[in-house]
Design brief:
The complex is a heterodimer of chains A (122) and B (111). In chain A, 0% of the residues lie in helices and 57% in strands. Chain A is mainly β and 122 residues long. In chain A, strands 2, 4, 5, 6, 9, 10 and 11 form a 7-stranded mixed sheet that branches. In chain A, strands 1-3-8-7 form a 4-stranded antiparallel sheet, with no helix packed on it. The relative contact order of chain A is 0.32. Chain B has 111 residues and is an all-beta fold. Chain B has no helices and 9 strands. In chain B, the strands form 2 sheets. In chain B, strands 1, 3, 4, 7, 8 and 9 form a 6-stranded mixed sheet that branches. In chain B, strands 2-6-5 form a 3-stranded antiparallel sheet, with no helix packed on it. In chain B, a hairpin with a 2-residue loop joins strand 5 and strand 6. Classes of the chains: A mainly beta (122), B mainly beta (111). Chains A and B meet through strand 5, strand 9 and strand 10 of A and strand 7 and strand 8 of B.
Chain lengths: 122, 111
């Protein structure tokens, strides 16, 4: 089973850009069977899909976040990254990265990283 | 703005059977897209429980089972155990959003 690990600042100032990286070990990010996704969970709330990327760079984004989100991939480092611009307190959440199976369409997430809490504050 | 609706909570005594519904629409479950289920224990990352409506990953007890009916899906837990106390989420693909969607989440309490 591959392992995924999120990394990045735990505190971001309001109106700035949140940047996180997910490092994949035990699997190649260039696998044709998978996308690689970001999901977030505000404190005490449910899960929200942010977006997913294929090793070729093809992306899917949540329409509600699309104008502020950029997901990129670095196959040489076996990493993919998330940038979320113009953050507000509403973007405070635990951010998870996960491998996403492709079967026709993007499907289930497995495994997940342990998650990283990002707090947005002025 | 989840497009998949789940009951906020369900509860049962140890050994009982509980079910969690996941109601969608004609752009996700009703369109034939698969439903998957996740278990999130307190303070941990979600874990895949069921994929493709009925399939259990290796290591998931057969006490957990999934089903589909029309524009809804269900997760059943039989022989409820204290360790099953967690939040459960369904997930599918939505063609109108061109992306993944999660359910609102259900907290399972073992009485």
């Amino acid at each position: 089973q591959p392992q995924l690990q999120e990394s990045g600042p735990g505190l971001v100032k309001t109106s700035e850009t949140l940047s996180l990286t997910c490092t994949v070990s035990g699997d190649s990010i260039s696998s044709s069977s998978y996308y690689w996704g970001w999901i977030r969970q505000p404190p005490g709330k449910g899960l929200e899909w942010i977006g997913s990327i294929y090793y070729s760079g093809n992306t899917y984004y949540n329409p509600s976040l699309k104008s502020r989100v950029t997901i990129s991939v670095d196959t040489s480092k076996n990493q993919f990254s998330l940038k979320l611009s113009s953050v507000t307190a509403a973007d405070t959440a635990v951010y998870y990265c996960a491998r996403q199976r492709v079967r026709g369409v993007i499907n289930w997430f497995d495994p997940w990283g342990q998650g990283t809490l990002v707090t947005v504050s002025s | 703005q989840s497009v998949l609706t789940q009951p906020p909570s369900v509860s049962g005594a140890p050994g009982q059977r509980v079910t969690i519904s996941c109601t969608g629409s004609t752009s996700n479950i009703g369109a034939g897209y698969d439903v998957h289920w996740y278990q999130q224990l307190p303070g941990t990352a979600p874990k895949l429980l069921i994929y493709g409506y009925i399939n259990r990953p290796s290591g998931v007890p057969d006490r957990f089972s999934g089903s589909k009916s029309g524009t809804s899906a269900s997760l059943a837990i039989t022989g409820l155990q204290a360790e099953d106390e967690a939040d459960y989420y369904c997930q599918s693909y939505d063609s109108s959003l061109s992306g993944s969607v999660f359910g609102t989440g259900t907290k399972v309490t073992v009485l």
